[in-house]
From TrEMBL:
Protein name (Swiss-Prot/TrEMBL): Nucleoside diphosphate kinase
Organism: Microcella daejeonensis
Biological classification of the source: Bacteria, Bacillati, Actinomycetota, Actinomycetes, Micrococcales
Single Gene Ontology MF annotation: ATP binding
Cofactor(s) the record lists: Mg(2+)
Residue sites binding ATP per the record: K11, F59, R87, T93, R104, N118
Length: 138
C-alpha cells in the first residue's frame, strides 16, 4: 500500500504567528488525515535527536535554539504518498524562493530573515518518518 505516515511540525514561528490552524487546514484540504496531534515544548535532547543529521553544520546551533524558543505543534499525518506530498505542500526550505501556493511560499516570509524560520518541518523519507514519529509520539 502507498498509504504512509509522516511527521509534521508547526515550528515556533508558526505557533507564535497564530498560523497553526491555517497550516493544519491546508493539510486537511489536501486530503490528508491528522491522526494524532500535540503541542510540545521541545527540549534540547529531543531536538538533538530530531536534527542529528545536521549536527556540525553552520546552521545547526541557531536552528536548535530557534526550535526550543517556544512551543511547536506536532502532527502525525497519514495519506497516499504523504511524505513526498507534504514536502511539496510545504515548499522548498528557503521561504523567499518557495513557490507561491506552498505553505512556505504563501506564509513563510515574515519579519524574520532567518531560513530556519520557515514555519514547518516534514519528514523527508519513510526511514526519517518512522524515526521522527517515534521521537515525537510514543
Ligand atoms: P527542510 O526543513 O526543508 O527539510 P533541512 O532538513 O535541510 O530542510 O534543514 C532543516 C532546517 O534547518 C530547515 O528547515 C531550516 C534550517 N536550514 C537548512 N539550511 C539552512 C541554511 N543554509 N541556513 C539556515 N538555516 C538552514
Ligand atoms: Mg529536513
Amino acid at each position: 500500500t502507498s498509504i504512509e505516515e509522516t511527521l509534521v511540525l508547526v515550528k515556533p514561528d508558526g505557533v507564535a504567528r497564530n498560523l497553526t490552524g491555517r497550516i493544519l487546514a491546508r493539510i486537511e484540504a489536501k486530503g490528508y488525515q491528522i491522526v494524532d496531534l500535540r503541542m510540545v515544548q521541545a527540549d534540547r535532547a529531543l531536538l538533538a535527536q530530531h536534527y542529528a543529521e545536521h549536527e556540525g553544520k553552520p546552521f545547526y546551533e541557531p536552528l536548535v535554539e530557534f526550535m526550543e524558543s517556544g512551543p511547536v505543534v506536532a502532527a502525525r499525518v497519514a495519506g497516499h504518498r504523504v511524505i513526498e506530498g507534504f514536502r511539496s505542500l510545504a515548499g522548498t526550505t528557503d521561504p523567499t524562493t518557495a513557490a507561491p501556493g506552498t505553505i512556505r511560499g504563501d506564509l513563510g516570509r515574515d519579519w524574520g530573515l532567518k531560513v530556519q524560520q520557515n514555519l514547518v518541518h516534514g519528514s523527508d523519507s519513510p526511514e526519517s518518518a518512522a524515526r521522527e514519529l517515534a521521537l515525537w509520539f510514543d
